[in-house]
């Protein structure tokens, strides 16, 4: 088998921003490389660039890259042979698999098909309303077939439907204040591209959503983490961080935060929106999981959108059809003042000319029955969360797995700082996990692991059954990895 | 009516790269602003930022912005009032219309509906096969509904279908060498983002495709124009330009080039691919219009893909379903070596997580009958090209409008250098034109106008009938603009 080669040119953008102020250069670089191997962006058993090539590409000394490779080898994440270069590895993993798992999704199927559990991705299956929505979209399509088919800012009916949902939730919105995007991450990149300059600071919750941290880095921003794990959003801490760093932007997920599932209450929204507006910081609110309220029908109503608490123009809101409906629909939206929507539309006109018509038409139909979709989805997710939490605490001794008020994840606490080692070992039984440090700015969260409960209960139970012996093996018990393919 | 205000922050990215080495600063800035007004990216009758605000945003002196505004006013593209600031205008246009035309597409309908002719966009209506392809896609959808729906690199069946079409055309390709994108412009941006560093030179044909020039600018590249209008692609001129500038990338459209419609022959492909590979320049070939061969069934076969002439890895090919099938399908692809496809996939995983499943499934079905679609499309486009050329030379005295071998456009030659003035005047009768200078790097092509023949013949004839009195008015004849709404 010839090894996959990772060139310095490939690697350089992936490690961009690896330097931090607290860690020695080589150690920070080794840590970034370790995370890239762990989350699969650099495949296992790939040949790394030579120490000199990487040093040249990163503009550092060869001493730094040599020390980083050495640290990586010492940690079990690389191997080297005489004259054969350095290649990536996983600590405790078996011999070269014929094909390394590569978690960038290559098929539309998830779950444990092919014996591989994908617990890195968080999207549920489609609700039963999806085929009918597409069928209705097709019925309307003939009206659009004589045209050229481009709708850069979004189909007027979809912009209206999104605006009216915001208005209904307490943030009055007109269609001109809505831009249709290809999902929330796409919206975030458009917004950051428009408002951020290289070097600008961006406040983020700690932990935060890995792809958002990537997008901030890609836009040249520097993420400033503010902890929310223990006591939630501390308005004073955010305000101080904004003052101290002069942050241009804050990226927040007040509605069932990813990964913790936390919900920001109304009075905190009020105080935080005011405090951040006072510093001139634009708040980008990611509402991807806003509809996944799992607190049950007896719970108090969810607070109004964060945007309703801020002065006009100070809050930009990102939404998505991916979690409310289905990831296969690549539709999201940005709510912003009309001037920013026009700027973003011009940027998008130079990028991809807009989202597909059929997807937009289908989303209009799904939004018309959003409560029907959500009633069933919330009930199913609540059941799955409870089932996963129960099997986790039973099968993985020492773990705690509190059930969050909403969202798609258990943010588990491990008894030891072993998240990366466990994620690495889980690969050997074909389960893909996102280790805790991917959710931090600087490699924290080694005693946390995010487990999505988005898949059906049997898939979740099967995945934990595979993981249990791996955990026992890590913690000194007897590991008996099951090498049979597990098809659910 | 309150005026739309364009802020300095909005304007700055749109004029990025306005400085050139040949023109005085104020004149280059005025020229860029003029083009922005002409192609609608800055609306007519919008209030511009103050001279000082714009000077601050661009990092130039107020003398420069003041002189640029003065030049803009002198040319009729701006007005100013005592203490009221400077606002955009069109030379010879009537009073403030209630709403200025804004050519970023806001609906799926094109044509002269609402009395407005959109001759800036070039996409034809959908072929009759489109609804059946979507219906077939919906029939296959249930297989994917249990999954999360993300397919970052593209649905395997679509990557296979695209690869096999390349192979059939003479460029052997595997599915791993294909990335699905949201159209060719999106593919171009992904590729430029991966291979270009700020300041890198990019060879382009002159004239070239405006959105490609925008994408090169957005990626920090500097376009180096090489003329192709008179004698086609001069291999020596391209090789010299590559040597002289050390260009990293060449962006070429050898297959019914936009806007000229030219087709590069096989021996030129061979020589040019070899010459550019020798300089280490990566060739990005945009095949968006490759299928629109209008030379008739008796013509010799089109040459094999440019990629088949270059060494492996030296040519990256962009394709699109927009012109072959329909713009409402936002699907395109990149063909590149497998390592670059993996790099692009990782970038895309951080951007928008992939294209919608249904669109990809529908495209697979359309590709299965691509020749059926194209037989009718080519015949219709040939008829439209002939009809438009005939009415243009009859109704617009002094114009020449040669019929190209393929593509979607007549690249008309005007008897005077009046393209911008004509495009401006055409707005007053509700026809949107892209003036010649949008196709050049530095404001050339004032005696050229691109007219798409992509719409049905009655729409084309109606548009030219509207334009004819405007042209007579410009050239001294009697202008009798018809103010009635024209609905076809």
Overview of the structural elements:
The structure is a homodimer of 488-residue chains. Chain A is an alpha/beta fold and 488 residues long. The first copy, chain A, folds into three domains: 8-88, Arc Repressor Mutant, subunit A, CATH 1.10.10.10; 117-122 and 372-485, Alpha-Beta Complex (Aspartate Aminotransferase, domain 1), CATH 3.90.1150.10; 129-369, Aspartate Aminotransferase, domain 2. Helices cover 39% and strands 12% of the residues of chain A. The first copy, chain A, is built from 15 helices and 13 strands. Chain A has helices at 8-14, 25-38, 51-58, 62-74, 129-140, 156-168, 184-195, 210-218, 235-245, 266-278, 338-349, 357-368, 370-395, 419-427, 457-474, and strands at 78-81, 85-88, 117-119, 178-181, 201-206, 222-227, 249-252, 282-286, 315-320, 332-335, 409-413, 431-435, 448-452. In chain A, strands 4-10-9-8-7-5-6 form a seven-stranded mixed sheet, sandwiched between helices. A four-stranded mixed sheet of chain A has the order 3-12-13-11, sandwiched between helices. A two-stranded antiparallel ribbon of chain A has the order 1-2. In chain A, helix 1 packs across helix 3 (51-58) and helix 13 (370-395) runs parallel beside helix 15 (457-474). Chain A starts with 7 loop residues before the first helix and ends in a 14-residue tail after the last helix. Mean pLDDT of chain A is 86; it is low at 93-116 and 478-488.
